[in-house]
Amino acid sequence: MTRIWKALLTSLVIVLVVLAPACKTTKKKVDTKPVVETTQPPPPEIAVQTDTATTVAPPDDFVKTDTVAEEVIPTGIEELNRWVHDKGYIRDAFFTYDESTLDADAQAALSASANWLKSAQGANYRLLIQGHCDERGTEQYNLALGDRRANVAKDYLATLGVDASRVQTVSYGEERPFEEGHDESAWAQNRRAHLVLVQ
Amino acid sequence: MKNILTVLALLVTTSAFAQTEVTTTIGAGSAAPVIRIAVPFPELAPSTGAAAAPVNAEEVRTGFYGPLTRDIAYSGIFAIAVLPPSVPVTPDLLKRVGAQYYLKLNVWLEGAEYVVEGRLIDASGATQLAKRYRGTPGALGRTAHLLANELLKALNGRPGVFLSQLAFASNRTGNWEIWLMDWDGANQRRITFHNALSILPSWSPDNERMVYTSFARGTSDMYIINRRGGGRVSVHSGLALNTSATFSPVSNDIAFVGSVRGNPDIYLIKDDGTNVRRLTSTGSIESTPEWSPNGRQIAFTSGRSGSPQIYVMDAEGTNVRRISYDGNWNDDAVFAPDGERIAYTSRVNGRFQIRIANLITSENHIVAGEGSNEQPTWSPDGQWIAFQSNRSGKWQVYRMRADGSDLLQLTFTSENKEPDWSKKPE
């Protein structure tokens, strides 16, 4: 569900970014808008329908505007990681069970991430991709599967122009689940290539 | 107790490897014992009747008598004959309780050290074995295991596995670290202090070292450490993953999973970090190598058929053949010490259970229990299997006979997993 929420936030940011030049004088207030938005209740369940690749606008729109460039970027690396994920600048790729291929959603997430990584802001950082699996497999095989997932994401970023030498991978298998639950919604959260900025 | 062993015969037609599938249920039942032995609580004074300092009976009970009687009860060859309390042990009394042997124990203190004396006396009153041990209170448990091993050696020709150790991973400090414990779960102690995810310990054939994987440097690397927690070295392969590392039983090679650009394969490396060799070369995922006892073969997991299945190859990477055909997820293969059987983790009806495949007869059966049961490891005598189960809601390490009987939970604190039984009995 957080993925959908992030996608919506991304769309919001894009809308705000597009609107921003029209009201330059009140830019500072506009910039704070997304933060206010995050306090609103989560979108209704029907929002699932909007979570497709088509909702991701051409990323250049938001990496090249003055507005974004003037955003206050958190200095601490942990805060920064939370910030880029909250903003949707960096998005994780999710996988189906026992699979390491990228579906349309995963490709969209990675292409958004690639655009930010190639932007003036993102170019300052290196990337660690963590491969994760759900708990339904066995630990040792899942460590290998997580390695493959992380590298599939790395390879895709490379095809989008993110220099592979900037990207490291590590597999956590099922050792570091994002969600502790034992149902499909938790498992879906735990099958991912998690993108982490490093300095 | 054999009634607890439920044996179900299931029809399986999926492969030539499993003509008849038998499921054995993990339970508390025990194998039929053969020798009845009386083991009354020790006299807390020298056998000579000489005066000695007062002994803490509770310390003797928990530190020595408990472990000793558990070893004897789990030996598979003894049944403990219960004696009436406070009655002198005579040949007549032994006859009445049906005991063939009597283990006469004396425990006393000399200074800060305990002296433990054990005499094995047969039904005629003749002493068959006499042993004396001396040590600190902390050594009482080891003394119990030593004496139990001597009993087995005297009456069964070979020692038990009472001095063997289990390595495992525990998160009780907040991070997964490598721990050790005695075969009965006693004496649990931490070996690694990475303060980072550290997993998958595996013993060297001489019981002196372990190889394992830690994420201490952010990526996963192999480390070797000795059984006392010292002498830690990292084994740098130059590859990614470095998981499922395992020592060759006959050389200084380590088999492990290495990865280049997201293609995990089975590799060898010498324990000094030199001479990396790739054994598998498919584009699919290979994982979880484990040596045969003679070092000539390696079992491993491969996704080449579309799902994780068990294969065996020669140690040079040649002559690959598939072992598992049942279920869509099999992993964690381990050779029994006899080299004929392989235990592995197999998905059965949505949960994981332990399967045992016989490579000679192609028989294959499931040892099934509550929850998921994974990562089997054989005792050095091939009688026992330790494994991890989440039947309690958390991962814990358990021990059972290879037929599923005599189940015993060994760990209770936080979560514990990935047991690896030491390779030698002592």
Structural overview:
The complex is a heterodimer of chains A (199) and B (426). Chain A is of the alpha+beta class. Chain A has a single domain, classed as 60s Ribosomal Protein L30, Chain: A (2-Layer Sandwich). In chain A, 46% of the residues lie in helices and 12% in strands. Chain A has a 4-stranded mixed β-sheet with strand order 1-4-2-3, sandwiched between helices. In chain A, strand 2, helix 7 (139-159) and strand 3 form a beta-alpha-beta unit. The longest helix of chain A is centred in the C-terminal third of the chain and has 21 residues, at 139-159. Residues 15-56 of chain A have low confidence and may be disordered. Chain B is mainly beta and 426 residues long. Chain B has 2 domains: 2-30 and 164-421, 6 Propeller (Neuraminidase), CATH 2.120.10; 35-156, 3-Layer(aba) Sandwich (Rossmann fold), CATH 3.40.50.10070. Chain B has 3 helices and 31 strands. Chain B has a 6-stranded mixed β-sheet with strand order 1-2-26-25-24-23, with no helix packed on it. Chain B has a 5-stranded mixed β-sheet with strand order 4-3-5-6-7, covered by helices on one side. In chain B, a hairpin with a 6-residue loop joins strand 8 (165-170) and strand 9 (177-182). Chain B is elongated. The two termini of chain B are 30 Å apart. Chains A and B meet through helix 7 and strand 3 of A and strand 15 and strand 19 of B.
Question: What attributes characterize this protein structure?
Answer:
heterodimer; A: 199 residues; alpha+beta; 60s Ribosomal Protein L30, Chain: A; four-stranded mixed β-sheet; globular; B: 426 residues; mainly beta; Neuraminidase; Rossmann fold; six-stranded mixed β-sheet; five-stranded mixed β-sheet; 31 strands; 43% strand; disordered N terminus
Radius of gyration of chain A: 17 Å
Total number of helical segments of chain A? Answer: 8
Task: Domain count of chain A, please report it.
Answer: 1
Instruction: Give the integer mean of the pLDDT values of chain A.
Output: 78
Specify the CATH class of the largest domain in chain B: Mainly Beta
User: What is the CATH topology descriptor of chain A?
Assistant: 60s Ribosomal Protein L30, Chain: A
Overall number of domains of chain B: 2
Distance from first to last alpha carbon of chain A: 29 Å
Compressed to H and E, one letter per element, the order of chain A equals HHHHHEHEHEHE
What fraction of the residues of chain A are assigned to beta strands by DSSP? 5-15%
Oligomer: heterodimer
Mean pLDDT of chain B: 92
Enumerate the strands of the largest sheet of chain A in spatial order, edge to edge or round the barrel.
1-4-2-3
CATH class call of chain A: Alpha Beta
Radius of gyration of chain B, whole Å: 23 Å
- What best-fitting shape of chain B do the alpha-carbon axes yield? elongated
Q: Give the number of helices of chain B.
A: 3
Structural category of chain A is alpha+beta
